Amino acid sequence: MKKIRSPLAAFGLAFFALAAHALDLVDERGVSVSLPQPPQRIVSLLPALTESVCALGACGRLVGVDRYSNWPEQVRALPQLGGGIDPNVEAIAALRPDAVLLAKSSRVTQRLEALGLKVLVLEPKSHADVQRVLDKLDQVLGTHEAPKVWRVIDASVSAAAQSVPASAKGLRVYFEVNSAPYAAGESSFIGETLKRLGERNIVPASLGPFPKLNPEYVVRANPDLIMVSVRSAQGLEQRPGWAGIRAVREGRICRFDAAQSDVLVRPGPRMDEAARLMAQCLSDKGGKR
Questions:
Q1: CA gap 138, 144 in Å, rounded
Q2: Nearest 5°: phi and psi at 220?
Q3: How far apart are CA 58 and CA 21, in angstroms?
Q4: Is 48 exposed, middle or buried (CB count within 10 Å of its CB: 0-12, 13-18, 19+)?
Q5: 33, 43, 222, 257: most buried by Cβ count inside 10 Å?
Q6: Among the listed residues 119, 69, 74, 121, the one whose alpha carbon sits nearest the alpha carbon of residue 97
Q7: Residues 6+ apart with CB under 8 A from 119
Q8: Cα–Cα distance between 107 and 103 in angstroms, integer?
Q9: What pLDDT does 22 receive?
């Protein structure tokens, strides 16, 4: 005789099934965010987070991104919702996302929450942060891919370090993020990669991860090698006093194109590619001293 399940029992099973998928996690603000289930419609307002979602195999869940998210190729077809700091709130709400991923610097967090949207503030700034954010996104997405993704990143950065010739180790490097000039200091994820590659950063951790420098600081520091984007490099040799910098005098400047610069300045799953770009620069321009 077939057993008849009562409506109450069926409801109970459904309730526990939903509860099993419910998520409670604490974001970068220290705010506890509850999600009834892994989000299927996601808006990402930071390129590093967009790339991390895709690296974890959940690119298909993205329904909108900020204007700077351009990798992998498929995200370019998604609605662009403005900048990460001041995105278009109305356009985000119209997409009915289950979760919105953004940085601490965003000015719209409270407005989004006031509309009833679930907001997760995640902003990687160091290697450890990248691993932690991957783990947290893995938990949110239910993808179980973060450990493998991080192992590949970490092993690839180590392999890039092994590829740098001994003659290019210990160089004093200046990494310019933009022509203001803002630099990548020792405590930034870029600085951490340079250290793993065996190099010395002219910008100490005491100045912060991405300090704005007086150009005279770089002249006095006299780096052996400069890493800079093609856009920021325009007129670099004509900056007051810079013609006398060793790196400029000896032509030890690596100029990265726009696509390469995107890879280098995003703390996410392409840090291994960034390490390879830096290692190639060091191999090509390091030379004998």
A1: 6
A2: -65, -40
A3: 17
A4: buried
A5: 43
A6: 119
A7: 27, 33, 99, 100, 102, 109, 112, 113
A8: 9
A9: 80
Tell whether the model's pLDDT for residue 289 goes beyond 90: no
Q: Whole-number mean pLDDT of the chain?
A: 92
Q: What is the mean pLDDT of residues 59-81?
A: 97
Indicate the class that CATH gives domain 149-285.
alpha beta
- And the tokens for 130? 């990248």
Characterize 228-237 residue by residue with b for buried, 16 or more Cβ atoms within 10 angstroms of its Cβ, and e for exposed.
Answer: bbeebbeebe
How many whole angstroms separate alpha carbon 38 and alpha carbon 137?
10
Place of tokens 């407005």: 111
pLDDT at 16 over 90: no
What lies within 8 Å, CB to CB, of 86 at 6+ separation is: 106, 107, 108
Question: Per-domain residue ranges for the chain?
Answer: 23-126, 149-285
Strand partners, 87: 82
Distances (CA, A) of 89 to 42, 82, 115, 119, 230: 14, 9, 9, 12, 33
- Distance, in Å, from the CA atom of 80 to the CA atom of 78, rounded to the nearest integer, reads 6
Determine the pLDDT at residue 5: 52
The encoded tokens of residue 253 equal: 């400047």
In words, the CATH class of domain 23-126 is: alpha beta
Position 288 scores a pLDDT of 57
Cβ(68)–Cβ(48) below 8 Å: no
Least confident of 47-51, 111-115, 231-235: 231-235
Whether the pLDDT of residue 135 is over 60: the answer is: yes
Cβ atoms within 10 Å of 151's Cβ, excluding its own: 10
Q: Do domains 23-126 and 149-285 have the same CATH topology?
A: yes
